[in-house]
């Protein structure tokens, strides 16, 4: 028997982004699975910090992400996987971006 699990990702609300949609400023949504907009270029300092409900995140098709700022996901204690393979424009992951994410079992980077 093969079991398939489908994860429903909730889009992060537009009020969490800068007015031009290019910077994700602060997320407090308690959903465990969140989707970041394709127009997002920067995940701000401490954007998801201490968001204990976050288990996984993904990106809308063809993401423009270039930078994950310092402490962006710090202390997201239930985050299990970091999949950045879709982020072909990613150039910078600043210090301690994933500090304290103790349950992370995989980190997948773009080619």
UniProtKB/TrEMBL annotation:
<dbReference type="InterPro" id="IPR032675">
    <property type="entry name" value="LRR_dom_sf"/>
</dbReference>
<protein>
    <recommendedName>
        <fullName>Surface antigen BspA-like</fullName>
    </recommendedName>
</protein>
<dbReference type="Pfam" id="PF13306">
    <property type="entry name" value="LRR_5"/>
</dbReference>
<dbReference type="InterPro" id="IPR026906">
    <property type="entry name" value="LRR_5"/>
</dbReference>
């Amino acid at each position: 028997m093969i079991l398939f699990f489908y994860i429903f990702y909730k889009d992060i609300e537009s009020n969490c982004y800068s007015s031009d949609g290019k910077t994700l400023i602060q997320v407090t949504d308690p959903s465990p699975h969140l989707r970041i907009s394709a127009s997002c270029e920067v995940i701000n300092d401490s954007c998801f910090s201490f968001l204990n409900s976050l288990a996984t995140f993904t990106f809308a098709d063809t993401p423009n992400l270039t930078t994950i700022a310092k402490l962006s996901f710090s202390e997201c204690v239930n985050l299990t996987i970091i999949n950045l393979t879709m982020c072909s424009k990613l150039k910078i992951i600043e210090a301690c971006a994933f500090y304290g994410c103790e349950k992370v079992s995989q980190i997948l980077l773009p080619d």
